[in-house]
Amino acid sequence: MNLPDLSKIPKIDKLGVIERTNRFCKRSIKNSAKEMGLHLSLSMIDLTTLDGKDTPEKVRQLCYKARHLHDSMEGLPNVAAVCVYPTFVSVATKELEGSGINVASVSTAFPSGQSTLEVKISDTKFAIDQGADEVDMVISRGKFLSGEYNFVFDEIATVKEVCGKAHLKVILETGELDTLDNVRKASKISMHAGADFIKTSTGKISPAATMPVTYVMLLAIKDYYKKTGIKIGMKPAGGISTSKQSLQYLVMLKETLGDDWMNKDLFRFGASRLANDILMQLQKKKSGFYQSLDYFSKD
Amino acid sequence: MSKININKSWKYDEALESTSHINLKDKYNLFIDGEFVKPLSKKYFKTINPATNESISEIAEANEKDVDLAVKSARKAFKSWSKLYPKERAKYIFRIARMIQERAKEFAVIESLDGGKPIRESRDIDIPLAANHFFYYAGWADKLEYAFPNKVPKPLGVAGQIIPWNFPLLMAAWKIAPAIACGNTVVLKPAETTSLTALKLAELIKDSGLPKGVVNIVTGAGKTGAAIVNHPDINKIAFTGSTEVGKLIERSLAGIEKKTTLELGGKGANIIFEDAAIDQAVEGIVNAIFFNQGHVCCAGSRLFIQASVADTVIEKLKDRISTLIVGDPLDKNTDIGAINSVEQLNTIEKYIEIGRKEGGEIYQTECSLPKKGNWCPPTLFLNVSQSHTIVKEEIFGPVLAIQTFRTIDEVIEKANNSPFGLSAGVWTEKGSKVFKLTKELNAGVVWANTYNKFDPCSPFGGFKESGMGREGGLHGLKSYIKFE
User: Residue A259 and residue B7: Cβ atoms within 8 Å?
Assistant: First the structure.
């Protein structure tokens, strides 16, 4: 595997991108399309807790929530995964056993990525050994912005090797990449280096996921698919907290990559508050009125 | 090559804009001297919803006598309106602008019902822009002397204005706002297929308290238009429409002292260079040709792609148009609405047939079309050249003729190789290239890395057979004043 030819990357016009993403937001999603979209969104969520103050107990609570989104409502899908720090992977794996919900672990000195390759490798190995199904790594943004693309590429390729069967999501941390052209470039490097998913953000930097950034990454995925036939997944993370936003992202996904990407194997939302907002909307659809947020458990 | 599949599982449900808030009469009379009056012709014609081909309402047909009454009313009103303190004129125009904003939703729905354009466009583009034109020219009303320093601008008198069916309310605003801001009075004729929003504007103008006779609106078809053009007491003719009719008007006005502005047809060249932001350029192609079903005089109907990126652009374009939704104009998700009239649909279909016969390679999306009404799916023609009829003539529909080019000189020559000269688009990341093309392209409007963007501040108009005179911006004032 080698660094791809970066001179052939299509340029990005920011204003054009914003115009396009505004158009996605104008789609009106109603009735059964809305219900289906909300169910789909729910099934694509990676419930996340990534705080310094996390404890095994906190993770256990989150896992319980993942298994019991809203027991009083029937026919709800499970979320796709629970996303935690490597140290809590064993806790989460145990809690989620047999639920079909994956355990995702951040790694490679998340969120800054400022460490040696050895540390990043052992970080990832540890997560895998503990039973993580998915690994969310960060790229070295400093190296990327210094033009050391080979370094970034090699790092991803190495982590991918360590991951083995586990799915690798590569976090670009777009809030630090400055331009959409850089986002496009980082997407291409990541996909060629072996990413199964590309992901916008750690959630620790603002702005996190935005529609323009996600759209540019979807375009990169589309070009890669056209060239290789390989479908790479997409995960916008951070800042998506309402049902309406999630539907707008789904519209963008559908109209950019088509219906083949409309499932949790190829699209995820990295979000923690989103689930309850969707539950509230679904409850409203059922009963005709909004329930207080107090009826939806916060874990 | 791997394909993108759209419309397999998740489909958008119908999202119809409500029509319960609109107020339409069964019959509309002429708006003359501040009142709705029955036509002396005693004739009415039907206005049709192009999405169903059902009648919405009946519209009065003005004959020569009706037009004469309207001109007399305008002449009478001119005496006081032209002498009114300019800032008072401005107040009236501001009020009209604000009232359009207040009634925007009703205007938008009626525009889509009567003309077939998607509600998204009438709601987000037509109606807000129409209000903005009134706002903009209201601002100029008492500042004309600053617009033309060291000169004394004076109004012309009575302006006869004839507008097309593609942007009914917006074109009415383009015409009325600068005319009355400069102190002229107006006799305006909307297109016969789309009179309703002009008549709703007449109701609004009545409610606004604008002095009687300043704006008169007469409805009818070509004959009514001819009566306006040939009326001896009109000082100015402003026409937007086909080049064919524009030529007729100019012929009949030869040697007569009437100021004329014509905004006619076009065959805009949309040029994609290899160094452009390709995905955004593809969006630009879509906006250029499929906006308002292609019923746009400045539509980018001739696409030129630099050969090195032609395959990529065409493939991306095909993917992109597979997501376009053709259907009910009142559905908020509709991208391409109904073709404005049966006649126009026939014209478009005639051209598509000619394109096929002349050997163009046609590509249409497999979108579902409603059973009733006038529809045309987004259509591409590949492998065509400057000699093909569909490249030379204006189609005024969602039909795009695609050619490739190799060098910048080649594309400039081809882009200018047209009797029209209204608009062009240039897509490149290189600023110097943009400026080279704006200098050398023979087009009234050149958009760089965007297309079909309109603003009241910006002048609009064409070269060659695309017309004469400018509308919009400071230049638009010039068409309605003379200097003492």
Answer: yes
Residues of A with CB below 8 A from B335's CB?
Answer: none
Neighbours of B325 (CB within 10 A): 18
Q: Where are the beta strands (DSSP E) in B91-166?
A: 153-155, 158-162
Instruction: Find the CB nearest B10 among A13, A30, A37.
Output: A37
> Which DSSP string corresponds to A23-48?
HHHT----HHHHHHHHHHHHHTEEEE
Q: Determine the pLDDT at residue A72.
A: 86
Strand ranges inside B241-288, DSSP E: 259-263, 269-272
Catalytic pick among A185, A188, A235, A264: A235
Residue A229, number of CB atoms within 10 A of its CB = 9
A235: annotated active-site residue: yes
pLDDT (average), residues B399-411:
98
3-state secondary structure of B447: strand
| Count of other CB atoms within 10 angstroms of residue B269 | 30
Smallest CA-to-CA distance from B424 within B414, B436, B438, B413 is with: B438
Number of domains in chain A: 1
Q: How confident is the model at residue B8 (pLDDT cuts 50, 70, 90)?
A: low
Question: Has residue A2 been placed in a domain?
Answer: no
Neighbours of B24 (CB within 10 A): 17
Minimal-distance CA residue of chain A relative to B120: A26
Q: In which domain, by residue range, is A132 found?
A: 8-295
Tracing tokens 């310094």 back to the chain, one arrives at A52
Rg of chain A, C-alpha, whole Å = 19
Q: How confident is the model at residue A19 (pLDDT cuts 50, 70, 90)?
A: very high
The one-letter amino acid at A223: D
Tell me the CATH number at A252.
3.20.20.70
**Rounded to whole angstroms, how far apart are CA atoms B134 and B132?**
5
Residues in Cβ contact with A285 at an 8 Å cutoff, skipping those fewer than 6 apart: A34, A35, A38
Q: What is the DSSP letter of A79?
A: P
Other Cβ atoms less than 10 A from the Cβ of A293: the count is 11
Q: Give me the domains of chain B, ranges plus CATH numbers.
A: 27-264+466-483 (3.40.605.10), 269-448 (3.40.309.10)
Closest by CA position to B109, among listed B398, B293, B332: B332
| pLDDT tops 80 at residue B1 | no
Rounded to two decimals, the ipTM of the complex is 0.95
Q: Contact B279/A219, CB-based, under 8 Å? A: yes
Report yes or no on A1 lying in a domain: no
